[in-house]
Structure to design on (124 residues):
């Protein structure tokens, strides 16, 4: 009998967990975990999904699209209005790499720690 796996947490390496958690908290509206600190911070979603941010000494941000320092992780976020979401995230501290492999279908941004992530139109 095969067991079913349920994803409960995703953790990103970074230099400043509380700062990166604040970026994603503002972007997603998720709640900051009450035990978050300078070493490990987290956000929780109502269904139990946890997004963690752990401090790594000598953290090296990804170099996207080149791979001299690999992506490490890649997140996708569904949005209703890709242009509005992009503008909001850039204001919060995201960056938009020059290389956009398919800007008509999705947008690649990087968070303040350098992790690439995509904005994709919501498919309802």
């Amino acid at each position: 009998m095969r067991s079913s796996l349920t994803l409960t947490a995703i953790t990103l390496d970074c230099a400043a967990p509380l700062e990166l958690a604040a970026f994603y908290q503002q972007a997603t509206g998720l709640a900051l975990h009450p035990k978050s600190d300078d070493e490990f911070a987290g956000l929780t979603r109502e269904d139990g999904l946890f997004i963690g941010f752990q401090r790594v000494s000598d953290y090296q941000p990804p170099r996207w699209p080149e791979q001299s320092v690999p992506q490490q992780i890649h997140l996708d976020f569904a949005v209703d209005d890709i242009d509005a979401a992009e503008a909001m995230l850039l204001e919060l501290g995201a960056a938009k790499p020059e290389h956009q492999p398919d800007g008509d279908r999705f947008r690649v941004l990087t968070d303040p720690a350098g992790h690439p992530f995509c904005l994709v139109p919501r498919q309802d």
Summary: The longest helix spans residues 17-28. The beta strands are 9-14, 31-32, 40-44, 50-55, 75-79, 107-110, 116-121. Helices lie at 17-28, 82-92.
